[in-house]
Design goal:
The structure holds two protein chains of two kinds. In chain A, 65% of the residues lie in helices and 0% in strands. Chain A is an all-alpha fold. Chain A has one domain. Chain B is an all-alpha fold. Chain B folds into three domains: 86 residues, NADH-ubiquinone/plastoquinone oxidoreductase chain 6, subunit NuoJ (Four Helix Bundle (Hemerythrin (Met), subunit A)); 35 residues; 38 residues. Chain B is globular, with a radius of gyration of 20 Å. The chains are: A mainly alpha, B mainly alpha.
Chain lengths: 379, 171
């Protein structure tokens, strides 16, 4: 990956020296799926099983390869080799369309994830809006797939999924807004840039810090975003669409083989995207506290900077993914009425309060963060 | 515009038009609403080509992720979905033809005037205009020149919201 996908496509073209640019743009888009989404999906299934096992004092996968690590490949082969079964009476067109929509929604979001200053697929100026928009494509996918299965459990699960995702989009969008108010842009790269810390420069934005600690309202808002994202990705305690004990397996009951695999991949990618969104917006993305890599004690080569930033971003994101899995064995599932009550009576008013509070903070303190205020009083 | 981009644009236009025709003429109401999904997505791509990035994003959020879901919910509550065939019983020709011609000629006139206005600008200025991010101008227009209509619409939406809560309240 290069500076961005267009530049990457261009460098691919010059490197290979042939072929139209759009072909290489397609290649770099495919690289996102095969280098990021698929490996993460595989590792996440393994991590989910291992972590679940740890929480329940079991061993988990331990037969295939060292620490059962090759279980990923065994699962993949199993999914590919399994009979591709379409139930009698199913709507074949919708049944085929649904997994594709889910994967488009989840993998499309990887294009704007800020994995590092030089590692953003496309740092478009509507970054967050794009991220938010492309993940909404998942909801019609789940609903149509559940309808296409012609199965009452599937349909109940799909209805729940669609209603849940549409409802929780509102608190998620509202808890993104404080960050937009602070940084004045929707561009993900710029938002992460503004959360840096620099001792040297004396620009208006220093010393600045992660948006999480910008003001008290932002601190609350970050948690709201995480909870809303949890509900949008249908994870426990919001896994009503899949609720094994009531709905067999919910919207994916009738799906088998690689179609089920696509659903699972979409779900894990969605969890990653949600965690990455919280990381980029509130946890400073690739920024390391108190350190600016570009102005370090000794000059660091740019390749190494990219690598460090990628690692830092991945560590923060994977920690949040771990929290998601941790919550799975901590909290019981909500009822449908509790789910909607939490959204409309809990999260939405709180998120509105945070937006309003941040706006007032920006007005009263002239856009300065807590860190800037403290530094201002000290010096 | 490179050949590849033109190809994608043609594809998006074809997707929009073909799926819009399917919405109007498909006998199964479920498939009609699914192809509405494709129409909305195609329109979003057209917005991108028009340089309206923010509108493209909003188009996907509101229409693909929101309106389609609501339409699908309503459609799925229909009985005998697969057996039902939508068909106009009494074929009426005169009034639809007159109204259609009137509507499209006025649309053509308005859009033609707009196109003439756009084509009269110097091309290099237009290119610069198209590449600009549209988020800030839209925000400034909504909270500046068009503040009153914007607030009026928000009051309307608030009314709709209150009405929805009143309809759905426990009896």
């Amino acid at each position: 990956m290069g500076a961005n996908s267009a530049a990457f496509a261009q460098s691919l073209q010059t490197w290979i020296g042939a072929g139209p640019l759009w072909l290489w743009a397609l290649v770099s888009a495919a690289a996102v799926i095969f280098l990021l989404a698929l490996p993460f999906g595989g590792l996440a299934t393994y991590a989910e099983r291992k972590i679940s096992a740890d929480f329940q004092d079991r061993i988990g996968p331990n037969r295939v390869g060292p620490w059962g690590l090759f279980q990923i490949f065994a699962d993949l082969v199993k999914m590919l080799a399994k009979e591709d079964f379409i139930p009698k009476g199913a709507d074949r067109f919708l049944f085929n369309l649904a997994p594709a929509l889910v994967v488009i929604g989840a993998c499309g979001a990887f294009a704007v994830l800020p994995l590092g200053r030089q590692l953003i697929g496309a740092d478009v100026n509507i970054g967050i809006l794009y991220l938010f928009a492309i993940t909404t494509v998942i909801a019609p996918g789940l609903l149509l797939g559940s309808w296409g299965s012609q199965n009452k459990w599937s349909l109940l699960g799909g209805m729940r999924a669609a209603a849940q995702i549409v409802s929780y989009e509102i608190p998620v969008a509202l808890s993104i807004l404080p960050v937009v108010l602070i940084s004045g842009t929707l561009q993900v790269g710029l938002i992460v840039d503004q959360q840096g810390w620099s001792w040297a420069s004396s620009a208006a934005g220093t010393p600045h810090f992660w948006n999480l600690f910008h003001n008290p309202f932002c601190f609350l808002s970050a948690f709201l975003l995480f909870v809303g994202g949890l509900a949008e990705t249908n994870r426990i305690p919001f896994d009503l669409p899949e609720a094994e004990s009531e709905l067999v397996s919910g919207f994916n009951t009738e799906f088998s083989g690689i179609r089920f695999g696509l659903y699972a991949l979409g779900e894990f990618c969605d969890v990653f995207v949600m965690s990455a969104m919280v990381t980029a917006l509130y946890l400073g993305g690739w920024q390391i506290p108190f350190i600016t890599l570009e102005q370090f004690l000794f000059p660091i080569p740019s390749g190494l900077i990219a690598l460090i930033q990628f690692t830092v971003f991945l560590l923060k994101t994977l920690f949040l993914v771990f929290v998601v899995m941790w919550l799975r064995w901590t909290l019981p599932r909500l009822r449908v009425d509790q789910l909607m009550g939490l959204c409309w009576k809990g999260l939405v008013p709180l998120a509105l309060f945070c937006v309003f509070g941040t706006a007032v903070w920006m007005w009263v303190f002239g856009g300065r963060s807590i860190a800037q205020l403290i530094a201002g009083f000290g010096g | 515009m490179s050949a590849g981009l033109k190809l994608v644009l043609l594809g998006a236009q074809a997707l929009t038009v073909v799926s819009a025709i399917l919405v109007a003429f498909h006998p199964n109401i479920l498939y009609a609403s699914v192809s509405l999904l494709a129409t909305f997505a195609g329109v979003a791509v057209l917005f991108v080509y028009a340089g309206a990035d923010f509108l493209a994003g909003v188009q996907v959020v509101v229409y693909v992720g929101g309106v389609t879901i609501l339409i699908l919910f309503a459609v799925m509550l229909t009985q005998w979905l697969y057996e039902m065939r939508l068909r106009d019983v009494g074929v009426k020709l005169l009034m639809p033809c007159i109204l259609g011609v009137l509507f499209f000629s006025s649309l053509f006139k308005v859009l033609g005037g707009l196109a003439a206005w756009v084509l009269a600008r110097p091309p290099e200025g237009l290119e610069k205009f198209a590449a600009l991010p549209k988020t800030e101008p839209i925000g400034e227009a909504l909270l500046g020149a068009y503040l009153l209509p914007f607030e009026a619409v928000t009051v309307l939406l608030l009314g709709a919201l209150v009405g929805a809560v009143w309809l759905a309240r426990p009896k």
